[in-house]
């Protein structure tokens, strides 16, 4: 509750048959020697840009952890032609059939991209930001992309000489071998001096996330350790809320991204998806993804940052128009159960809420160290629960 209310993820991983029969890595810029600056709006960690498509302007999420995507309405509006139909999985492992269409021309700033495949799939939650599509990694794979948080602009170019890039702040960038059909960028870092590869996902708001499998691999190398265990659901994928499952809070003593070092990090795990850094990284510096030369640059404001933080005993999520208990950590196990409704927080009524209100406003307990939560159990009985951030 001290960060986002819950995790939103549009990570898409194709089923094996889908990946073998289609690649999103088609099309690209219509010119060479291009340079453009694209202003973005940061909505609690979501980067929203304006693109031109079908002769009009539209708001798109800038998401390096997903392919280009369109809403059904926008795909119909531009009369996009079908390229492929297949099955795709969201970040939570839920699968559904979907259509891929071709975009003839889409303009980012001064640059036109042509022949770009796009998924016709956009979660309803994106309407909360008036977003009609996604600028994804397959569209960016032939460019150098610099996210300049200081100015809130995204530079897209194929001319490295027009950027200020310091080699001492660079690490290798590769395309995810498991998702090379959409060119997800993966970077090399050191976690407690152990070499590790993690994606950079600008569609995620958190600083860092792990899958359970990667956590287990790293813990065997003493790169991280489990500091708390919980149970419940928090992540909303393209096809809805994940199922309740075991969750782990992982502690990392030190992380190195090039010359930058972060100490005392904690991150949550998920059973599915991938391990990645999110846009919280932009709070500490500027990021450049050089897809052309295979380099990732992180230019930190300070070279060493302590990320030690306190945590609440449980975190909420949304279920319909209700705010409910999501993940319950060990210290909260005697207080609440996953799925119980939260009807009030510090005396403010939350008996009926909208997803958009929760996404577009600060978390209810932001800035607090303690809180009084009113819980409605399965039998309709109300009780007050006192919680402490520790």
From TrEMBL:
SUPFAM superfamilies: Acid proteases. The keyword Magnesium does not apply. Pfam families: Asp_protease_2. Gene3D superfamilies: Acid Proteases (2.40.70.10). Keywords: Signal. InterPro entries: Peptidase_aspartic_dom_sf (IPR021109), Retropepsin-like_bacterial (IPR034122). Residues 1-19 form the signal peptide. This is Aspartyl protease.
